[in-house]
Each structure stands twice: as structure tokens, then as C-alpha cells.
Write a structure and sequence with these properties.
Strand content: 15-25%
Helix content: 25-40%
Distance between the termini: 54 Å
Shape: globular
Number of strands: 19
Radius of gyration: 22 Å
Structural class: alpha/beta
Strand order of the largest sheet: 2-1-3-4-5-6
């Protein structure tokens, strides 16, 4: 392939994927590629995939078909979790030229240089996930307002519904010194807010090769970042309830840089279902963590991940979940409908919940989430909180978030972009 080729990227899934896509983009731009919007024509399209649900898999296939209709001679590269889990399945999709597994995604330019367009099946560059041991630091730079900074990858947990350990490998981390160096770089670039991301963020500290010994801790990292000049805000993207320690909560409560905002996966409010899911806590621990956060930070926002329709979830189990979440002083929910994933232990659990019941339960919890969100916002009505406004002009409007994650929308003012503004809710 000649130089000055054009490339376009599309990301499916989590904040971690966004950080990695942004890094892949910078790698390719340094090699002479010109970045294009994904809706434009490009010589190479890179799709960074997720595989948490069937919808992510389907969306990947739909994107490939769309590229084929628009620019059939373009190269299509698929990477990410779906690519690691099912490389042969992806390679069989008409129009796909290259499939890069977890160990090869950051060598993307070397692989693209050797690509040729043909009717042969896609080239697969992957390996067994047990051999994926390195750590590649990543961060997003889509705009100057906030960035997703990857500090940890992989997971040593074996939740019965989850494919992420099979897609990303063992838990491993960046070093604190390198994370701080990246934060200093981002501060010089004008970034005001950093969102710390990882697969199992609270497990931070295991060496880059997945060494079992925790050489450093997540609390050590938080304390080091708190001392970095130029970054106004940090957010912790998601952290397991058994790993969010009392010490960490207390530290955040006294920090000016770490925001009073936590996202803590629950998955179920039934201890029976938590056991079937192979989660490492019971709901009583979850309630204790929420209570401590609200005791030390009454204004804090707490988000909750929950899965509905897990195998074996009876109406009584679902009612336990609803009632438990209803009783918690949390701010919003991310509700996921359980979907079967190959090679997971959950496939062995019976009975299977019919799809229409899963969807009904999803709707019920989304309604609860709406009520929780409205109540949380109303609690702060009339109070002043700092808002960091995004740079985007959305049809004459701009948006931003308070420190405790209340979304604010107002008519666009260019001078407010990437600025902290005291705002009356």
C-alpha cells in the first residue's frame, strides 16, 4: 500500500475501547495515514469491536455491509473483543480483509502494509488469549474536554456470564509512573478531565505480565494522580463493590480532583442470582459501600450496572432486585438484558428466561432508573455546582456535567467550551 492512505475508525462498546481506538488512530497518523470520519470514504476502515452482547456482534456485521455498499474496494480491519473471541466467524464476513486479535491490534500498521485486496478469506492474526500478557497504555483525545485513560486491562474473575477474560486475558496494569506521565502530557494538551478506565479497575497493580503480586494499588494510583498539576477532574469509570475500599472512598471524599461520582456494578439484588453469576460479594456488602459513600459525600452520584433475565431468575428474584435497588440511595442504572455467550458457565444454568420476560424486566428497571435520576437531580435543585462544558455545538446547544454527574444543557457559548462554570441547578 502506498503512503498517504486514508483511514476511518468506528468504536463499539466501552470507554476502554474508545481509549484504544484513539491510540490506534494516532499510531496510524504517525505512519502517514490521513484520518477521515467513518461516514466518509476511506481507503481503510478499522472497527474496534465489543462482544458483551449479541447486539455488538450484529452491529459489527452491519457496519461491514455498509462499507461494502459504499466503497467495495476499501480495506476492512476488525479488532477488539469480538475479533479475539470469534476470528474465524469474522473472517467469513464478506468484505473483511484483516482480523487482529488482542496481541496484534497495536501492530496494526505493520499488518496493513502487507494487505492486498482479494476474494480470499480474511487474514487472521491472533493467538491464544493465555499468551496475551503485555500492557499497552492508551488514552482518547477526541476533544480537549475529557479523555479516557486506560490504566488496567484483563480480568482474573470468572463471572459465569462474561466473556471478557477470554477476550482480554489476565489482569495486568500500567505502572503508576507511566500513568502519571500520561496525565502530565494530557494536562499540557489542555485536558481538564480524565476518566480512569480498565476492565477491572480496582485490581490495578498487577504487573504488565499479569504477575499475581500487587506491586502497586489502585489507592496508590489515585493518590499519585491527585498530585498532578493541571488536571481539574478525575472520574473512576467503574469499580467492583468488593474492590472499592473504605480507604478509597474516604480519600475521594477529601479530594478536590476526584469527583464525587462512582459507578459500581451490582448485576443482581438477589444473593441467589449473585451466587449463580459467580460474583465475589453479596448484596449486603454493596449496600454498605453505598451507605458509606452517601455518609461521607451526601451529594455523590452512584451509578449501578444490573443484568435482567439471567438463567434461573424467578419473579421473586427479580422482585428482590427491584426492591433492593429501590431502597438504595443511588442515582441511575445501566440495565442490560442477559444474552447467551458461547463458552460461558451460565449456559449450563436452567431454566432459561424467555426473551419477552427479559425485555419486560429491562423496561421495569429502566423506568426505575428514570425515577432515580429525576429524584437525584431534584435533590440538587437550586444549588450551585461546577459544570465542565463540552466543546460540541449540538444544534445551538452545549452540554456539560457537574462534578456529581448531573447533565446540564444550555445555549452554545464558544467561550464556555472546556471551561468550568459555576452553575445553579
Amino acid at each position: 500500500m502506498s503512503q498517504k492512505q486514508t483511514v476511518a475508525f468506528h468504536t463499539l462498546g466501552c470507554k476502554l475501547n474508545f481509549s484504544e481506538t484513539s491510540t490506534l488512530s494516532r499510531i496510524m497518523e504517525k505512519e502517514g495515514f490521513e484520518k477521515r470520519d467513518f461516514t466518509d470514504s476511506a481507503d481503510v476502515y478499522v472497527i474496534n469491536t465489543c462482544s458483551v452482547t449479541d447486539n455488538a456482534d450484529k452491529e459489527c456485521r452491519q457496519l461491514v455491509r455498509r462499507i461494502q455498499r459504499k466503497t467495495p474496494n476499501s480495506f476492512v480491519v476488525i479488532t477488539g473483543c469480538y475479533a479475539q473471541l470469534k476470528p474465524a466467524e469474522i473472517a467469513s464476513i464478506p468484505g473483511v480483509d484483516l482480523v487482529l486479535g488482542a496481541a496484534e491490534k497495536f501492530n496494526i500498521t505493520e499488518h496493513i502494509k502487507n494487505l492486498t485486496k482479494s476474494n480470499d478469506p480474511a487474514k487472521i492474526c491472533s493467538c491464544d488469549i493465555a499468551d496475551v500478557t503485555g500492557f499497552n497504555a492508551s488514552f482518547s483525545q477526541h476533544d480537549r474536554t475529557r479523555t479516557f485513560l486506560k490504566v488496567q486491562d484483563g480480568c482474573d474473575y470468572n463471572c459465569s456470564f462474561c466473556t471478557i477474560p477470554m477476550a482480554r486475558g489476565k489482569s495486568r496494569s500500567d505502572t503508576i509512573s507511566n500513568v502519571v506521565a500520561n496525565a502530565n502530557h494530557l494536562a499540557l494538551e489542555g485536558v481538564k478531565e480524565i476518566v480512569l478506565t480498565g476492565v477491572n479497575l480496582g485490581d490495578f497493580g498487577k504487573g504488565a505480565h499479569g504477575d499475581k503480586l500487587h506491586e502497586e494499588s489502585f489507592l496508590d494510583l489515585v493518590k499519585a494522580l491527585d498530585a498532578v498539576d493541571g488536571i481539574n477532574r478525575y472520574r473512576i469509570s467503574s469499580i467492583e463493590p468488593n474492590l472499592i475500599t473504605n480507604e478509597l472512598i474516604a480519600w475521594v471524599s477529601n479530594s478536590d480532583q476526584f469527583m464525587p461520582h462512582f459507578h459500581i456494578p451490582l448485576q443482581s439484588g438477589s444473593n441467589k442470582i449473585l451466587g449463580l453469576m459467580r460474583r465475589r460479594y453479596k448484596r449486603e456488602l454493596y449496600a454498605e459501600r453505598v451507605a458509606l459513600i452517601k455518609e461521607l459525600m451526601p451529594h455523590a452520584s452512584i451509578g449501578v450496572d444490573v443484568i435482567v433475565g439471567f438463567p434461573g431468575e424467578t419473579e421473586e428474584d427479580f422482585k428482590d432486585t427491584f426492591d433492593f435497588i429501590h431502597s438504595l440511595d443511588v442515582s441511575y442504572l445501566h440495565v442490560f438484558t442477559y444474552s447467551e455467550r458461547d463458552h460461558t458457565k451460565a449456559l449450563e444454568i436452567k431454566p432459561v428466561i424467555p426473551i419477552h420476560i427479559r425485555n419486560e424486566r429491562n423496561k421495569t428497571l429502566r423506568n426505575l432508573s428514570y425515577m432515580k435520576q429525576q429524584f437525584f437531580s431534584q435533590q440538587h435543585s437550586g444549588t450551585k455546582r461546577p459544570v465542565l462544558f463540552e466543546a460540541y455545538n449540538k444544534e445551538g446547544m452545549m452540554e456539560g456535567y457537574t462534578d456529581n454527574y448531573i447533565r446540564v444543557s444550555t445555549p452554545y457559548r464558544a467561550e464556555w467550551a472546556n471551561q468550568l462554570i459555576e452553575w445553579t441547578i
